[in-house]
Amino acid sequence: MIRDTSAQDRPIARAPLLRRRAPWFVAGLVGLALLAWGAAPLRQLLGASRSVNLARLTVATVERGPFVRDVAGEGKVVAANSPTLYASNPGTVTLMVHAGDTVKTGDTLARIDSPDLSARLAQERSNSDAMRADLKRAEVSARQQGGELQAAWENARIDMQTAANDLDRETQAFKAGAAAQMQVDHARDTLEKARVTQAHADSARQLGEQSLQFDVQAKQAALERQQLLVADLQRQVEALTLRAPLDGQVGQLLVAERASVAKDAPVLTVVDLTALEVQMQVPESFARDLAIGMKGEISANAKPWPGVVSAVSPEVVNNEVAARLRFDGARPDALRQNQRLSVRVLIDRRDNVLAVRRGSFADEQGGSYAYVLRDGLARKVPVRLGARSLDKVEVLSGLAPGDEVVIAGADAFDGAEQVAIAK
To answer: Residue 394 sits in a domain of what CATH number?
Structure first.
């Protein structure tokens, strides 16, 4: 016989069927429970169109608290009153001061030598003297000719009176029979002739006086015009001496000593140290909220001074608007033009405001929606945002305190309604 393993085999007793399948039933029940517990999140995860790692996102929590809107930046000191003195006429400059010198109103700062202007002033003064002499001569001539016209009129009046007397005598003689009618008629004609002569003399006297008066007035007007020209030239000569228009300090010397300058060329500047302001550049998005009179703070070396917005430029340059602040009360000592200072302007302050940290979602997404993190998903939620500060943005609706919002990095979602977030 062939040897095999039959002698080694022995039958084994089999357990009942229920005992064999019990572990499988328990495992199935546990699996069904887990499936029921995770069905909703699983469906949500399966419904997400994409998945983004949390490390790529910036998340902030919506909170309720104080909300401060301000604008901060670096400003430079500028003089609210810093006039520049110009050359009124071409010439050679002689400087009387140096940059940084303290000056008082009326102090001589520079002189401009203009020989042509000085020579022209002398010529016009001579013409003015000659015209004044012509006026005096015209007045004397007018009086002389007026006297002659008056004498002619007086003679004509006397001749008319004599002719009237002759007519009376001839008329009386004719009535007495001592004179002929022809003598009476001759006397009457003589009187009429004298009356006409006297009328012409009177008219000539009046016209002559008017003509002489017009001649004198014309020469008077010419003299006044010449005097105005002399006065203007005198003013220009006096303007060649540049004087300090205010108490302050010499800023910059824009020309060299004994340099030749053209008309209207800048010569130097004077800075009013009592009217210094701080100018800052404000982003265009904040400029519309700035207004004259807003409170601010100017600081240097960690020491603050109160300030007030004194001017806001109406022009936007390189997406920025220039604003000026003046010191409200005390100001730091030893300020210099163009010195750099830190500036902060308070636009608005409110308490108990729902807000979230500002991020790109408030600008790039137009502020119409935000992504809220819940249960491992970033859900797209419509929101309405309000005022914006440098670090926060006001939430008007759509979010609640404690919500975690994706404030940066949401561009990876590509506008999806919900996105799975992987940690």
So the answer is: 2.40.420
What does the pLDDT look like over 302-325, one tens digit per residue? Answer: 788 899 998 888 888 888 889 988
Q: Give the tokens for residue 68.
A: 């401060």
| CA dist., res. 305 & res. 277, Å (int) | 12
108 plus 160 within the same structural domain: no
Q: 26: pLDDT confidence band, cut at 50, 70 and 90?
A: low
**Domain range holding 333?**
73-79+272-349
Q: Total structural domains in the chain?
A: 4
Structure tokens at 376: 């491992």
How many whole angstroms separate alpha carbon 101 and alpha carbon 237?
25
| Token pair in block for residue 34 | 């887990």
Query: 174: closest CA among 188, 163, 161?
Result: 188
Verdict on whether the full-model pTM lies above 0.85: no
Does one domain contain both 194 and 260? no
- Given a cut of 80, whether residue 112 has pLDDT beyond it is yes
Tens-digit pLDDT profile for residues 207-227: 888 888 888 889 999 999 999
For residues 103 and 246, membership in a common domain is answered with: yes
The whole-angstrom separation of Cα 181 and Cα 74 is 120
Whether residue 266 sits in one domain with residue 224: no
Claim to verify: residue 255 and residue 195 sit in the same structural domain:
no
Written as six digits, the tokens of 186 are 């001759």
Residues 143 and 108 in one domain: no
Tell me the C-alpha distance between 38 and 40, whole Å. Answer: 6
CA-closest candidate to residue 278, choices 239, 307, 242:
307
Whether pLDDT at 240 is above 90 = yes
Going by the DSSP 8-state scheme, the letter that residue 15 receives in this structure is P
Does residue 250 share a domain with residue 108?
yes
Q: Which residues, including other chains, have CB under 8 Å from residue 71's CB and lie 6 or more apart?
A: 280, 282, 283, 286, 290, 344, 345, 347, 390
